[in-house]
User: Fold this.
Amino acid sequence: MPHERFHYGSITELEQTAARESAWLPLGGELSALANPLIVHNHTLPNRIAIQPMEGADGTPDGAPGELTYRRYERFAAGGAALIWFEAVAVACEGRANPRQLMLTEHNLDAYKRLVERIRETGVRANGYAPLIIMQATHSGRYSKPDGSPKPRIAYNNPLYESEPLPASAILTDDELRQTESLYGLTAALAERAGFDGVDIKACHRYLINELLSAYNRPGDYGGSLENRSRFLCNAMESARASVSADMILTTRINVYDGFPHPFGFGVKPHVNPESELTPDLSEPLKVIGKLADRFNLPIINITIGNPYKNPHVNRPYDAGGYVPDEHPLVGLSRMMRCVSAVQKAFPQLSVVGSAFSYPRQFAPALAAGMVSGNHCNMAGFGRMALAYPDFANDILHSGGLDAKKVCLTCGQCAGLLRQGKPAGCAIRDAEYREVVTR
Assistant:
């Protein structure tokens, strides 16, 4: 069945539609599963709810957190989630996705220290505990816009993204990639000094590292074989590991499925006919995760799929967006859950954070609890829901569910505003934010 809007009045209706669409959604979990503690490295998390990284475009020109950045994270901290996966922080000016993207440097380090302290103080004051805070380090690659205009740095030309090939100068050379790897170590060291509990070497959503994972046709040390395509990710993690103490968590948020045909998509089966060209094939992603887990003793990993710029329905099914998908949203949601579950089953020692839990609205807790209680993931990660409903975690944990009048409507406005260069937030539910962006 083609795309249809969310219209479910009960979990039973949701389950019936999922069955009709052959969508796997384990909705039967007890919410108490989300209140169970979880040990990650040397931290005991009081619940299984995480807030996913969402770029805010509300930093200062020099990369420090701005007033709205503080506001967002104070609201997240008060909301009760045990883990705040802090948004993408650029490792270099050329890799900023917009002029207001956060970028941690020696010059603004104190501002980050204040923000991390504020997050912890707010969490303790509101809930009796401070959330675990993992910072995402990134290079935006083909989506780099450091001064507001596109200045892409790419791994290879891709006809799915470009009507005409970009000039050779846009393609990062092997030497430039080697130089960039070291920047992740510098950023990780600063993150530890700022007080973050961990650092994520971002490898998702078609930013630089994710694009390199699909560089099947690139020549040289960073293309072709899986060893070469994963070289940058491994070296960036090695740089980070060597730059921080053993107490600092090292991890990644990684795409295990891009949703683009081979040879332009990672985690996709090389197709022999049009019907199979977008079939997920996690054999290579699982090999990469296995290598990272063994080499760096990862305690936790965050799993996602798709590209929010090109095929956003894949990584965050929606009611409204820039196009009407040719699949039912529950089919996309099921694909995400299957990918997350496959990773957790393959690596039971890893605490896997799943994604895309906002779409089912007030029924999201049932899906999150079903995934956690069924050992399909160890934590449920929410993105858009946290912008619309910052207290969602406490309501799940202490009120038995979510208020249908407060949930995210998956309307896509938060992403649309961000693409316009405006600070991220929920213009539907957050009146104070709405006043700021409509001035």
Summary: The two ends are 41 Å apart (CA to CA). The CA atoms of residues 260 and 334 lie 18 Å apart.
